[in-house]
Amino acid sequence: MLIRYFTFALCLCLGLGLAAAMFLASHENRYYQVLRWKEESERIPESERKAKAKEIAAKVFNQYETLKSLSFEVVCADYWRRHGTLQSRLPIRWWRYKKIATVRMAMTVDNMRTEILVDGKPLYRFFLREGRFTEFKWPWNGVGGAYTEYPYDPRWFRLCRGVDGHLQCTTGSYRRSWIGGESNKPTWINDLKEKGIRTSSKSFWFNWILGESEWICSTTVRGETCDVVLHIESDDEYLRWDVFYINPEGFMVRREIINSHPDDRRNKWTTAMDYSHFKTDPIPPSMFSPSEALLETAKTWRKMSEAEALAELKEVKDVDLSE
Q1: What distance in Å separates the CA atoms of residue 42 and residue 44, rounded to the nearest whole number?
Q2: Mean of the pLDDT values across residues 303-323?
Q3: Which of 83, 103, 106, 124 has the fewest CB atoms nearer than 10 Å to its CB?
């Protein structure tokens, strides 16, 4: 009897193992999809791929430049595995995973409100109104809550003590409005304009999609047929792919950043940003000022002057804020 049970259990385990192996052999996750799309797209002449990317870029640019109001939500997460391993064939949701943040934005050309939450808990809230930027940071990693106000500068978080630098890097592009023309244009994209790349956007990713990119395929994202545009940066050690998924309206609904580890290019990590809940309805002006409830919450926090906040940024990050 025991031998029969043992034989049955062994056969069951072998069967499950074989089924799992067959599943992994046939399954293609989003990471390997991108690799395949890139390879298959090379059958199309490079000039055609780049020309189509520029057409898509023009549509994207026109959409964001002409909007008067925009709001959306984005979920940012990291996934990492070693290329070519059995584990890397697993569905992306089964890779090693870390959810970085959920970001909610509402904006007009000149005003903005951004909320950054980590694990469902508020971390930052920003308000841009009449050229002034108000920044609130909740108590975090043993550092008390604080808030400050200063003239608009989209480049840096001022209240950064206790906050992971990678989180700030990933969410940094949500400190500026994404819509409108030349107003409030950051000075750090002037060099792109001098190189002949037309850009007036407030967000880094526009510069890539408007620059040297190529169309690689069309795919479906949440029921919409989207164009996939790829931008590649590389040198002897560094390799980065920025993959943009653009819906028929010209909105970016997903972005994936695939990086190779400098010491071993087989180690891959992906930062994925999924955008949803797009709205272009008019936004009431009250949205761009702190609510009474937020001001009440912040009563016990440290109120930092512009100079104090700037000094903290320089101390913690050692950044050069010169133009």
Answers
A1: 5
A2: 81
A3: 83
